[in-house]
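Annex B. Sample input.
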Amino acid sequence: MRRRVTTQTLQIGDVTVPGRVLMAPMTGITDLPFRRLASRLGAPYVATEMVASTELARGRPDVVRRAAVGEGLPLTVIQLVGRDPTSMGEGARMAEQAGADLIDLNFGCPAKEVTGAAAGSALMRHPELAVRIIDSVVKATSRPVTVKMRLGWDDRDRNAPTIAARARDVGVKAVTVHGRTRCQFYTGTADWDAVAEVKAAVDVPVIVNGDVTSAGHAREALDRSGADAVMLGRGVYGRPWLAADMQAALDGRTAGAEPGAAQRHALVVEHFRAVLEFYGEVLGLRMFRKHLGWYVEQAPWPADPGDRRTAKARLCRLERPEEVEEELAILWRLK
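Annex B, continued. Sample output.
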């Protein structure tokens, strides 16, 4: 008998996410061009870059751009960061007015410029303030509010289960947990087993994050954590199709093969042109260089690592879009 295959979904408040493989908010990565591309390739959920609530309220152009929403996305998820409950509430109201389906709060960023301002994962050290922020945001918006956090500040105080339970009590509809403490940054390996303690503490969806870069990792992370979904971070660098392929594998469908030369080249060029249109030629070229590097790193050619480094360096020195496209065509052996 043929097994019936159904697409797995995730319910967050009144929002149905059409899949269980989510893409994390990543500063400088998940801008509107990237979200559109990943969504077109089948990603069910791609969050915005981290948006500073105080700067959003002031209308700072680069911060407003990070919160940019656009047509053609299955969901609009805007992530806010900050430490002031009032400004976070105002940011949530603005996010809803802009068209957010979900509003995510960043309690997990380990970067020193964020934690130094007592935001991001620094809030794991200040549970009372964290709860006041959540309460302010929940009261300010009609949209479901979620929180992304780490296991704790350090191994001496892994308080994610406690903060998650308190977040649930004031109205949070889902919790994402990166399986590291802040003090680990991105060293070592993510502790998916520890996320199970958060799952046991709350009755809302829990999403496991950290070191999920393949379908095998996704299955193992879900099994060990008991989580309801997985969230991808650095694994999507140079692979905007990864969430869709991983979702297909979890659904029991055949995942698409890694794109070949022509398809991969077409995706890179599509992404490049969208970035130039969004940012303008000068800024867009600069913004895309990191993506160029990742696309070269992830491609199965050139086979020699030294040749890859040379190709990356050459691409990232080019100053005109037409030169970049010409070099890409040569690299991908289409010329």
